[in-house]
Amino acid sequence: MSWPCQAVRSHPPPLLPTQLESHYRAHHGWLVHWLQRRLGNAADAADLMQDTFARLLAGPSTQPQTPALRAPKAYLATVAKHLLINHLRRQSLERAWVDALAALPEQHVPSTEQRAQILQALQAVDAMLDGLKPKVRAVFIMAQIEGYTYAEIAAQLGIGERSVKRYMAEALTECVLLAPDLPA
């Protein structure tokens, strides 16, 4: 029995292929232009626009059921914005990796295959860190990259050492779950 004051939650139907095609025809032009203004690169903008619509096509298996979009531009811009942020972060990571390689003495430069594997691992770790809650990510970075002790982290973040340990355990669990996906 449903009480009159209770909101009934129902999942909207997924986008049908004809709806997706209609949204693509109506909105792909402005979306690629919107992305190109932010990227300054037509090829990357076109790729991200396609990825945006691919997300819609993927539907319920990768995201909650997609509503028959009431505000398609806003929805597409949101999806594209997230993809754009990931793209820019990946580019920044790749630039930092290339800069780090350039600073190495020639005898220590990894092979092309090793470089690709290391970059893939860096991207996987970056994605894992991005998926962590902000405090968990901050604790992990402070401990593992910046070398702070748990007591120092607790003092800087204004939390107890017990919370620091809990956050580290959460982050390390994600690292362990990520390990099988990393190149050997």
Automatic annotation (TrEMBL):
Every RNA polymerase sigma factor 70 region 4 type domain range: 123-175
GO BP annotations listed: DNA-templated transcription initiation
Domain spans labelled RNA polymerase sigma-70 region: 24-92
Molecular-function annotations in GO: DNA binding; sigma factor activity
Matching PANTHER family: RNA POLYMERASE ECF-TYPE SIGMA FACTO, RNA POLYMERASE SIGMA FACTOR FECI-RELATED
Family according to the record: Belongs to the sigma-70 factor family. ECF subfamily.
Keywords assigned by UniProt, alphabetized: Sigma factor, Transcription, Transcription regulation
Record-linked InterPro entries: RNA_pol_sigma-70-like, RNA_pol_sigma-70_dom, RNA_pol_sigma70_r2, RNA_pol_sigma70_r4_t2, RNA_pol_sigma_r2, RNA_pol_sigma_r3/r4-like, WH-like_DNA-bd_sf
Lineage, broadest ranks: Bacteria, Pseudomonadati, Pseudomonadota, Betaproteobacteria, Burkholderiales
Protein name, as recorded: RNA polymerase sigma factor
